# Entry
Amino acid sequence: MFQTTSNLKILREALSSHLELSQYFLGIHTFFDGEVIFARDVVQVNVDLGPFPVDFANVWEWFREQLSGPASQETFAYELPFAVQASDDPIMEKLIELTTLAPKTIWMIDLSNQEDPETGRRFVIVTVPDKKHAKAFRETYHGKPVHPD
# Structure
């Protein structure tokens, strides 16, 4: 799950264009210390009306504020394919589990739409508060496939 690296610029562009679609699904979940500390799902389904006015600039500013941390913090970004499913989400469960192993916050941002649900994108943003744990994360996970149990 950590083999396809991304960056915040790609996420910003994808999120901005996604919010302009007439139909979309947006899921934002945050995990820390084995817990879900933030969850927000937005579903825009009305084809006859324009997209609900979401102030992208404020959403992005809020997100960036949440990512801010000490100067020693490192941020990693990854992208995976995503499709909205009614069943369990083993990747989400694995991400929650990873927050119990060392100090880190993981953001999972899902972008999908009903017109082509197989083309969804999942961004995983990992913030690690210090260089020691960032090095351990990089050596253990960065650029490597991590599969749910």
Remarks:
- The chain has a mean pLDDT of 86.
- The longest strand covers residues 35-44.
- Residues 15 and 50 are 17 Å apart (CA to CA).
- The radius of gyration is 16 Å.
